[in-house]
Amino acid sequence: MNNKNKTKYIIALVSILLLTMLVVTVKYYYQHFGSNITGKQAYLYIHTGSNYSDVVKTLEKDGVLEDIASFKQLAEKMNYPEHVKAGKYRLKRGMSNHRFINMLKAGNQEPVKLSYQNIRLKEDFVGIVSQKIEADSLSLIQLLDSAVFVEKYGFNRCNVYAMFIPNSYQLYWNTSAEKFFVRMYDEYQKFWTKERKAKAQMIDLRPIQVSILASIVDGEALHEKEMPMIAGLYMNRYNSGTPLEADPTVIFATNDFTIRRVLNKHLRIESPYNTYLHTGLPPGPINMPSMKAIDAVLNYTKHNYVYMCAKDDFSGYHNFASTLAAHQANAHKFQEALNERNIRK
To answer: Could you write out the DSSP letters of every residue in 182-216?
Structure first.
C-alpha cells in the first residue's frame, strides 16, 4: 500500500470511528437526556406491591413514553427494577428518561391535598378520602367499624368520628387505611393542645364529649358567631340534667336528612341519639364537628338560656329564652312562618 492509499485508509478509518462515536454519543444522550414523556397522562400511579414488570405494563398501556425500549435499557443500567416505589408521580411533557427514572427510584412523588368538613356520615367520609389516597372505601370503613382497631386509639365505634378534625392535609397517595388512621390521630393529638384539654377539664367534659356536643352545635348553627351562645344553652341543659332536646339528633336518629320540620312522630323514635327521650350526650357525634364548633363549646357563652327556636324571618339565627312561656311564644311564631311557606315536613 503506497503512502497515498495509506493516507486515504487512515482518513476513512478515522471518519468511521468519529461517525461511530457520534452515533454512540447521540444515542447515549437521547437515551439519558432526550425528551421521552408524551404528556398524555398527568400522573403515573404505581400501586403498593407493584414490581418493575407492572410498571412497564402501565407505561405501555397509558402511552406514557415515546420510546419504551430506551426507558427499559436505561432503567436496567440504573438498577431501577430493584427499587420500585409505590406512589403518585407527576409527569411532565418532555421529561428525559434519566430524570424520570431518578424520580421513580427515589420515590419523589407529589403529595395530595385532602380537605374535608361538614360530613355527616362515615360512608360519605370514606368515599371522599378514597378518592385521594390508594386505600379504598371498603378498607377504610372496615377499620372505622372495627371495635378492636379503634379501641387502640381510645375510641369506640360510635365516637371514633371525633378523631377526625376537619381541615386540609397533605399526604401521599399510596397511604394505606392503617397509615391514614395513624396520620389523623397525630393531627387529633396536635389539635388537642394542653390549653384545649385544660378548658375541657374546666367545663368537666372529656375531649370526646366536647366533640359530641360540638357536633350538635354544628347541626344547629348556620352562623359561626352564634355557636358560643348555642353551646352555652346546651351546657346549661347538660349540667342541670335536663334532656338536650336537640332537633339535629332526632334527624340523625331517623336517618332522613331531608326533614326540614321535626314533628311529634319524630320525637318518639327510639334511639340512643334521640335527645328528647334520653338525657345526657348521645353516644357519638352526629356529624364531623368543626374546629370552630369545638372551640365554641370550650369557650361557650355563659347565660341563663335553656330554650331556643329558629327566628321566623328564616335568617338562620335563633331566639333564645330562659322560660318555657317565652320559648312557646317564639316557637309559635316560627311554626306559623313554616305554615305560611307550606313547609309541612
So the answer is: HHHHHHHHHHS-HHHHHHHHHTT--HHHHHHHHHH
